[in-house]
Amino acid sequence: MGRLFTPMTRGKKRFSAVTALIVAGVFLTLPIILSVTAMAGGGGGGSAGGPPPEVLEQRKAAAAAAAEAGESVEGEAVKIETGRDVYYKTEGPAIGMPAPITADNETFYPRYNFESRVLLWVANQQHLYYGSFVLAVPIFCMCIEFAGMISKDKAMAKKYDQLAYDFIRISLTAYSLTAILGGILIFTFLTLYPAFFGYLSGIFRPVMHIYALTFVAESGVLYIYYYGWDKMREGVLKWVHLSMCVILNVIGTVLMFLANSWIAFMMSPAGVDEQGRYLGNIWHVLHTALWNPLNVHRILGNMAFGGGVVAAYAAYRFLSSNTDEERAHYDWMGYIAMSLGVAFLIPLPFAGYWLMREVYAYRQQMGITLMGGLLAWLFIIQATMIGILFLTTNYYLWQALGRMTGGERFQKYIKYLVFILVVGLLVFITPHTIVMSPAELKAMGGQQHPVLGNYGVMSAKNGGINAIIMTTILSFIWYQRGNKVPTVSWSKFGNIFMGCFFVVAQINNIALAVYGYFIPANVRIGLSVPQVAGTLSCLLLMTPLNLAMLKGGRQLGPIRWGQIPPRSQYAIIMLATAFTWMMGLMGYIRSSVRLFWHVNEVMRDNSPWAYTHTIGFAANVISFNVLFFWISIMFVFWLGTLGAKKVVIKGPVSEPIPAGASPQPATSH
Which residues make beta-bridge pairs with 272? Predict the structure, then answer.
């Protein structure tokens, strides 16, 4: 009888577990859903920096009673002023306090014998690094766990499941550090910039509780997801486990959007009048001119950065491994992480173009300051870093061809790709205007260099970066074909079509780049759309077409995971480091474009540090942030190795690994 009731008992336990998880997820997300719904309705009447709603209602009732009695009621008790939104140009009740007018003294800007702005800079950047990492990794885990669940190969399903577990285990310690750094950041704001932080937190008061609830919900879901891994490895519970990861990513995305709203408001304020008074619509405060492009840009940036950091961890473990089995596993792990990171790196420049275009649309002077004025040289450095990222990515793919049986047939074409990459990079980093002293301007005879000034136009720069991206897409397609030959009946036509498509897209890109020299600047900027369209077509059409051609293709031999030169792993580490440095640079550029404003054109920065740093000083601080992050993340990596269980991977070392498969990782957590 015990045996008969065992399946029923197990079913009841499974049903109870699923119900408990669903209830936990609902309770964790319900406060956020209710808060967001209220926020979408205009903030629910919450007043930032002004009197509570009940006080406003009392004032209105007193005013109405006085009007009925024919009395004249004076004072602030009845008078409710209106203001005009600085961005949306709508009228609203000015129920918030004006932005404080600060002065250069200890009250508004406390001193600690060091530049307060640099202290805040370091605290903010470290929090941003770790926040980006812990927001990106769960998305990777979701994709990898889903790939394992739909895989028909049980061995590969276990490998993908273990890989997803390895990813989330790495991020768990980083998540704790993110919370600690967030607390340090708030403490730094309160201590060094009390007036500014008080005003900003007053403006965002209607959504501050949402931010707190989101953080609590994310923590709860993360721990359920991680510690419930072994209990939910099969059947329906596995789908529930994946659903928890989906919820985790939704909550993390909401958290990032709310954090981005602070940055967007500082750059392009909305929902306030010229005095900085809140006008009662929190959605206007959040939905500023730069919020959407900033969200897209940071999502892609976080994903590329997170992939680079995880790939660097895999490279670190590869280089420190003592067995072929471990090197094979971490080689595969590094490839998966790098592929995911590069997949988001490729569209990242396009999101950057959109963000810059919206900056120009919001305030043309801000765009000129960024691209052709005070901060122009920083964009030359940024272009150089982008070039390093794509060159390193291509180098890794070319090295990875060496572990593919048959990949050597592509080696003879690499020199042509190198030529395209180098030429594209040289065009991309060529400046059009540069910042010079009056003496240099006089010696050169104008703002533009007599030679370089004729070449560094935007259409040419777009042509250079699009040529680089298309070359990277081609390198990845070659890697996909490394050990395979298409056998579909239309393979010859498909090869010809793909070749012609890439050639036509490149010719279109170059022709538009050259055509930009013969048209006005306001027309030239529109050429970026057809240039980007050609590149995205290569990515979104040719990559799936190549996979369709390789389906059922003839394999030339196995993928020899782990048999890759160590220099390829150093390339991965360089890729991650370069992206970390570029993230720091772009954060500095985004902050510096406000010049001497805390909130652009609303709250002025009257501190003794209201000036733009020199490029050398900024580069030193950015480099310090990068160094500090990588020292701390190496400590996180080391902690991750302490928690990993040693599992012997069975099978002879000399046994070839099937093509498209990976080495057997640890089978338990």
Answer: 278
Long-range pairs for 24-29: beta carbons < 8 A, 24 or more residues apart: 24/220, 24/224, 25/221, 25/243, 25/244, 25/247, 28/216, 28/217, 28/220, 28/221, 28/247, 28/251, 29/217, 29/247, 29/250, 29/251
CA-based R_g, the chain, Å = 28
Residue 472's pLDDT is 92
Does the structure show a pLDDT above 60 at 653? no
- Where are the domains positioned within the chain? 28-359+610-669
Tokens of 409: 């047939």
Q: How many helices (H) and strands (E) does the chain have?
A: 22, 6
Report CA-CA distances (Å) from 251 to 129, 198, 220, 338, 542. 18, 26, 11, 25, 34
What is each CA distance from 545 to 407, 413, 419, 443, in whole angstroms? Answer: 20, 21, 26, 55
Please give the pLDDT value at position 66: 54
CA-CA distance, 118 to 115, in Å (whole number)?
6
- Under the banding of pLDDT at 50, 70 and 90, the label for residue 648 is very low
Cβ-contact 502, 538 below 8 angstroms? yes
Task: Summarize pLDDT for 241-267 with one digit per residue, the tens.
Answer: 889 999 999 999 999 999 999 999 999
pLDDT tens digit sequence for 443-478: 777 666 677 666 777 788 888 989 999 999 999 999
Strand ranges in 493-588 using DSSP code E only, listed in sequence order? 554-555
DSSP at 649: P
Neighbours of 321 (CB within 10 A): 16
Q: Can you give the pTM of this predicted structure? A: 0.81
